[in-house]
Design brief:
single chain, alpha/beta, 2 domains, 8-stranded mixed sheet, 4-stranded antiparallel sheet, 12 strands, globular, disordered N terminus, disordered C terminus, binds adenosine-5'-triphosphate, binds magnesium ion
Length: about 375
């Protein structure tokens, strides 16, 4: 169910200078993840990520959207180094961390990048009080200090996430779902990260408390300049919270751009389908189930789009060129063979590779197979 939000409050002027400096806090290049599938002796694999490029600037919130199974969590888990990518680079301050810490993420890496999961209850061991989780995080990362400093830091963390310090004595089951997710965020904040990867942090919460968590995430960005990857199915909350939206389909990013521009002018058929499902009072007739069904049918019947699920089709066989959409200031691009840039904007193709001819035969069998099995 969508979070009922439509307007985006602007950050306070004083806080603006902390947000979005040009340098990427985190950059991912050509990230590939294959999962082994089949039995013990099988060599089959499923390609969950097919070469993802994504950059998040300092103080920027990027929403990653896409339907179930598109690879959103796999991308976050690879970035958090909970999964080992098959290929590609993860750059922090321009350094490829996969080369530097080859086998597992270093403590330094974890102190710069933290993950918040969908299920706050699952990530908090029920036998411990809240104080334990926060103290452990602070201690592990050398931020506990003296007992007095630790006490002050614990109180401060609770206040930052909108909880009262007396809740430090509570057990997870004594808190509501929203309060537990605030604890999970406080635990991530304890290490003073530069980037938070939040994988559907509100999807298990009651609609009435979701907005509070989204506002907390926004405050953390505005006041502490933390960058975020916000994974969600809910385009309304992505519009509310994120500066940019990246759309993932079958393990690949197919469209990305400034949030409001992307939602107002979706260029990829898959994005249009996602957008058509969002009730929006500002768009008259935006949620017409018949129109949506017709759109889905049209996309599925499309003769030259991987979105129809036919692995023999062109998007599966050849890499579509990235096209800029609209005003360059919106950094909006789409990767789709169906997209036709305006005639006056022939130079809008962002990629160096030319378009393949329509009768091009599949050039990369493994890619085709992986798409078929994914
Ligand atoms: N550990 C695993 N082993 C094998 N396949 C996996 C594993 N984890 C994910 N996959 C596969 O990778 C693909 C992407 O899964 P992922 O969980 O990243 O999707 P998602 O976009 O997060 O979906 P959802 O919105 O439902 O959370 C799916 O086809 C999934 O079955
Ligand atoms: Mg997921």
């Amino acid at each position: 169910m969508s979070t009922p939000v439509s307007a985006r409050p602007a950050p306070a002027a004083k806080e603006q200078d902390l947000t979005q400096t040009g340098a990427p806090a985190l950059e991912v290049k050509g990230l590939v993840k294959d999962f082994h599938s089949g039995g013990l002796f099988s060599r089959a694999s499923v390609r969950a990520l097919g070469g993802v490029d994504l950059a998040i600037r300092k103080g920027e919130i990027v929403a990653l959207v896409g339907e179930s199974g598109s690879g959103k969590s796999t991308l976050a888990r690879c970035i958090a180094r909970l999964e080992k990518p098959t290929a590609g680079q993860i750059l922090i301050d321009g350094t490829d961390v996969l080369k530097r810490d080859r086998f597992q993420a270093s403590r330094e890496y974890r102190s710069r990048l933290q993950m918040v999961f969908q299920d706050p209850f699952g990530s908090l061991n029920p036998v411990h009080r809240i104080e334990h989780f926060l103290t452990r995080s602070l201690t592990l990362h050398g931020k506990a200090g003296t007992p007095d400093q630790l006490r002050r830091r614990l109180d401060e963390l609770m206040t930052t996430v909108g909880l009262t310090p007396d809740m430090l004595n509570s057990y997870p089951h004594e808190l509501s779902g929203g309060q537990r997710q605030r604890v999970a965020i406080a635990r991530a904040l304890a290490v003073e990260p530069e980037v938070i990867l939040a994988d559907e942090p509100t999807s298990m919460l009651d609609v009435s408390v979701r907005i509070g968590i989204l506002n907390l995430m926004r405050q953390l960005r505005d006041k502490q300049g933390i960058s975020m990857l916000y994974i969600t199915h809910d385009l309304a909350s992505a519009r509310y919270l994120a500066d940019r939206i990246a759309v993932m389909f079958a393990g690949e990013l197919v469209e990305e751009g400034e949030s409001l521009d992307l939602l107002a002018n979706p260029a990829h058929p898959y994005t249009r389908l996602l957008v058509s499902a969002v009730p929006d009072p500002a768009r008259t007739g935006s949620y017409d189930p018949h129109e949506r069904a017709a759109l889905r049918a049209a996309v599925m019947e499309s003769a030259s789009c991987a979105f129809d699920g036919d692995a023999e089709q062109r998007c599966s066989a050849t890499e579509p060129v990235r096209h800029r959409v609209g005003d360059p200031a919106n950094e909006h691009w789409v990767r789709c063979h169906l997209y036709r840039p305006p005639a006056t904007a022939a130079s809008h193709a962002l990629s160096a590779e030319p378009l393949e001819s329509p009768d091009a035969s599949p050039t990369d069998d493994s890619r085709t197979e992986n798409k078929a099995s994914a």
